[in-house]
Amino acid sequence: MKKLQKFALSAVFGVFIGTMAIPATPVVAETPADMLVIANRIDDITTLDPAESFEFAGSDVIRNVYGRLVNFDPLNLDKGYEADLAESWTVSEDGRTITFNIREGVNFHSGNPVTAEDVEFSLRRVVTLAKTPSFILTQFGFTPENITETIVADGNTLKITTDKKYATSFVLNCLTATVGAIVDKKLVMENEKDGDLGNEWLKTNSAGSGAYKVVSWKPSESVTLQSNEDFYLGAPAMKRVIVRHIQESATQRLLLEKGDIDVARNLNPEDVAGVTGKEGISIDSELRGRLMYISLNQNHPELSKPKVVEAIKYLIDYKGMQDSFLNGQYRIHQSFLPKTYLGAIDDQPYTLDVEKAKALLKEAGVENLEVEAGVREAQERVEIAQSLQNTFAQAGIKLNITIGTGKQTLTRYRARDLDVYVGAWGPDYPDPQTNAGTFAYNPDNSEEAKATGLLAWRNAWDPGDLTAKTEAAVIEGDRDVRKKMYEDIQREFQARAPFAIMFQKDEQTGRRSNVKNLNLGGAITAVAYWPVTK
Amino acid sequence: MTVATDPERGRRKSPLSKALLPVLRTVGTIVATMIGLLFVTFIIGRVMPIDPVISVVGERASKEAYEAAYRAMGLDQPVIVQFFYYIGDILQGDFGQSLLNARPVAEDIRRVFPATLELATLGTFIGVLIGVPLGVLAAVRRGSWIDQIARFVALIGYSMPIFWLGLVGLLIFYGILGWVGGPGRVGIFYVDIVPSVTGMILVDSLLDGNWTVLKDAMSHIILPASLLGYYSLAYISRMTRSFMLEQLSSEYVITARVKGLPEWTVIWRHAFRNIKVQLITVIALSYAGLLEGSVLTEIIFAWPGIGSYITTALLSADMNAVLGGTVVVGLVFVCLNVFSDLMYKFFDPRAR
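Above: the input entities. Below: the structure tokens describing the complete assembly.
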């Protein structure tokens, strides 16, 4: 099917190029001034319950419907989290308890006021329901048994107590995630069925206090949002937001050119090139959280030599790939925190340098190296592997590519069975720990530890003092000091880890030029519609 | 042959059961086919290496929650018992919950099937309306320029990928000329305006008497429907032509011509009447094919029909949705087959 689509797409593109020659000026329609119409692939939405949702399109909806204790300003993501439904907060001496003062005068869409009790209910609910994304909260030691003591509302304040000291910024960053959404306790409990805490009902309904309320969600068809005129930051300019599921890039492009939609979120590079420079259409580029990397198994006698590790980092044609088949989709990025994350750095010490690599390999005394790379059957990864095969060969390393399904490849990777892995990694929550805790952390590298969740373990790599440094960064209370710590960890990682981080995902969006202030959420959060104007 | 030894005589039934018997036989056929279909889908659902429990409770559920759900789903029962549960559920119109969007599959199908039904019906209508006369004409004027054109049109219809035609159609008629509405069933302003009765927007807007919505829906459906119509036209016209050629060379037609009957009467009253039965099978099959949903057309025209529904479900291993969709499509095939059988009997006295 994927192949068929690929083939179809390329054929379609050819046709487009051909037919574009027909001289014509399409009549441009326009969407109403207070309505935002977006084309996007939304067939990944499985639920609109914030305690359960863990997909991109779902987070897009939830970010606009629910308030959180702390949140990112869509117009300034780099500033980090800010007060949202919590007006302010204090941290106890021992760093384990955070007390939030809940903002007064904010109402849910139902008219019920937002109280500390709602916050208590929402966070406890995530822990009790224990759905997939609940680990973002439970990693702080909350369990269904202890929540009555660890998450407690008292008058206008809410106290959360973690099992040990963590960096405040770590806890707060996690509260900006989708699971941190505050739901309307009264309304949700009115719709509870068999003790499900309203899970069934919330899957398709909304009970938030955010800028928009859900009018309807038709799976794989559309999501319609209506503005909340009482939104505490002011009524949004866009009264209605309609997200239509349009699978095809070419179809999205046609609709955008005609002005029947305001934003096209899945234009492929060919269609982006096609609309670039057209009157009334602008292209935005926004970095997202996904990284592309290769890793070297340290159980391999040759690949574990530091000089070989270094040599391989010089045998990657970063720029060549970025400017050819990854053009417009990925940008060079060589550290494990995606840009817009706290502590992200922009250092790019490596470029393709075959001579230097050859010298390093010679120093290491390595000759005629032959290794196997496991690659998932995804177009871009296979292309990356082929590029690597080519550049490795220039230094005398033979790279054998084994293409498998996601499951096959991942199973072997988790069993430390691959020499080289060509992989992608997406952060789980908006805090640097999400990546630091897997790339640079591995307390027990033994075979028996079976820490298959850690990327460092999968490559049989003992990060040495980086493990302790990562642990220290997790509990550092000062946000700026913590930021510095991650910068240091990444530089050390960059120099000696058997990982070559290569690219960060770049998302290109076509929009009608009159649409202003649309932010997709960068690498750390989701789209925000409330600042949008036309 | 004496009356006493007539074997039929002893079995003669009352007129009521005589009328009832064929009906019962038809119902029997449907039931048997459906049980077969259900059995196959059930087996497919059981052999797929997907854990339905995990899909419901999530990957991080506790062992207790997992086992409770396992029992609640009846998976601890013997397979044969599970099969009867499955049939029981389906008889009540319950295909289970979609793993992808947590809604009842039956509800989803009620939403997507009318979209396909609308499109396929209009498409078949166009295909028959143009395809049949074209085929007849091509047969009558065999070898003439009109026959060549008909052949060419059919060839394009057969061989051009439908997504290509769809995109070029969109580009020209929507993008450049602006004659038709764009992708989607109606313009965004008309979404959810008429109450959903049948789920088919053309019918619903008619029922509601809302001409604006009807007009808009028409402008959106006309292009994909013409496309599907063209596709079935290609098939129907070729089949019509070959059926007609066979009839036109038979003796009764020569006789009719010798008798001096007008050509019109010879073609339509004599020859065409005899191909009706065959044509019905062809049309019914082509209609059923369109009712399966044309995935590519649905994707390009952002048409939320059953084809893309099943495909999406398949790609995300949403087995309840796939099986539900398969059962519905199977039912459509069975019903159309029965329908064309009944039509046989109506048009062809020998089949009675």
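Note for the figure: The radius of gyration of chain A is 24 Å.
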